[in-house]
């Protein structure tokens, strides 16, 4: 077999049937081979960044690794943002880049870029294939690394001569990487210690991150929470791990989390962090975070332990294994937490998540709430980055895991549209809904072509406030209302016309009544992508909010008055 | 506090870069790093000298472990170990100073590796502390050039 054939045969062995790619000089041989391949579907994107976000959206929606194929030089460098995004959010992804012929590497050859050097700090690992006989085993290693332990992106750089060279196809029984031995099983003594702490606690709180979704441990989580009546708060990536409709769900914690979740963190005597990493958007000021709590921290990545916050009981291992272990080790007699739950209910009543509805103007909160109701919390919801993203976390009631797909760690504008398309390639039994801002929509708008061409039934909901809203909010609150370069009113295009020109069905809504109808009609349409522009109130702000670096006990609860601290 | 870390790594291109760039990306102090093949040609040993409090050094060790190309990471600091560094140094030489210089070379158990009319090159092996002292003592005689290998270290045998 030649290198290109080995490449596709290796993908088959890994069970890959879908790749997102874009051709170029270094990949001509690969695309020649691809021409006659039917069992692996290739999606032609319109920008390599789009391919990476699509692959990540696909991975997050399905749990399977997303696969990207791009050419050398500019094709490779265009993947950098998407790779970084997947690295920060621990998404399994394998990126294949073409490379100039081995003999030209280092010569500043045409379309040469040292992509292995460039992506070293943003991949879990990367490889330059130096011999065609190592191509298959390298691909096997790449998939193994991307999907085992803490998932992440892996890049494989394939010089042109390697793809043309020939050798026998050999597929090792399993990937052999002596330097990679993730700890999956939690230490039994630690588990027992944790179970006792949990059984004794008066005011326990489960703090759940994306690791629980990756580990597919939602059932175990529900069992533990309901058995002992432990309230559950989630990070942005953890939403859906525990159903929002359950009375023990406290919603999200952190900067734009609910008041009561943050109060609960503040007052709990036991914090059980599972698959979460004490990110600064969650903790605010670290020295005042959960000040009264004994802290248990389960994470699969040892480097996450004691990184931002010193914990009392670190337990490295897979979150499913952790929760199963706790359930087994719980003593017969354990505290229930009526008084604690009542206390939380009072905070909930003090500062509920509500918004007002007016007949002739539209709020983002209303749109998201409507979509949540009409989809009964069961859609796959993708967001871009900005105010609409935070409102989504607050007002969409996620009822199942793998339901929120959002750029959490890197905060990449332009992520939403391609990620939603990728998700829709992977999930066909639930609607895929995108909430996007007018700023971010323009950042990868070219992928609308991909959605139209492949008739992807993604619902694109544009929350148009004609502002870089999140930046505007910070300018208003913390930067003397100097609205520097955030007003897009005069420069935004006519979105309806633009979208229609791409061949996509498009609607506009300016009132709650119109919005309700447009959402219904969009959810009913499944022949291809559908776009709704919601003209929302321009200067709304997302509350409550913990100012960056502030204590989470000091949330801003109201708009236009940064002095109102509670 | 100073820590001496020994790391077994895959002997592949790019490994040194992975380790060094991890230190800079995470803002860890990297005082010296040295690398060479071991008894197994597929494996190299790296000796790293870093500074930091316990929390930072524990992060350094975990981050090193996380790299795929690292096979074994050991903090030698609090274990029985031998640590050595090599110093090569060229100094001015004159009639007036040569006697003293030769005497000092003896004191430090150094070796003369090259000698010219007006200069002398010596090698000294010892702990990094000894190398520091050596340099201090010779400085007044006029050091032209010097090179240090960085520390290499290994467990003491049983
Ligand atoms: C690629 C990139 N550039 C800049 C930013 C900084 N940024 C964060 S939110 C935001 C505004 C987003 O505006 P829009 O897409 O209209 O969403 P809105 O906040 O109005 O809902 C900006 C510029 C970013 N996150 N990503
Ligand atoms: Mg906007």
From TrEMBL, chain B:
Q: What does this protein do?
A: Catalyzes the conversion of 2 pyruvate molecules into acetolactate in the first common step of the biosynthetic pathway of the branched-amino acids such as leucine, isoleucine, and valine.
| Stored PROSITE patterns | ACT
Listed InterPro entries: Acetalactate_synth_ssu (IPR004789), Acetolactate_synth/TF_NikR_C (IPR027271), Acetolactate_synth_ssu_C (IPR019455), ACT-like_dom_sf (IPR045865), ACT_dom (IPR002912), AHAS_ACT (IPR039557), AHAS_small-like_ACT (IPR054480)
Full protein name: Acetolactate synthase small subunit
Signal peptide residues on this chain, from the entry's feature table:
none
Q: Which organism is it from?
A: Pelodictyon luteolum
Give the pathway.
Amino-acid biosynthesis; L-isoleucine biosynthesis; L-isoleucine from 2-oxobutanoate: step 1/4; Amino-acid biosynthesis; L-valine biosynthesis; L-valine from pyruvate: step 1/4
Would you tell me the Gene Ontology cellular component terms?
Answer: cytosol
- Tell me the ranges covered by the ACT domain, including all copies: 4-78
Q: Which reaction(s) does its UniProt entry say it catalyses?
A: 2 pyruvate + H(+) = (2S)-2-acetolactate + CO2
Q: Name one Pfam family in it.
A: ALS_ss_C
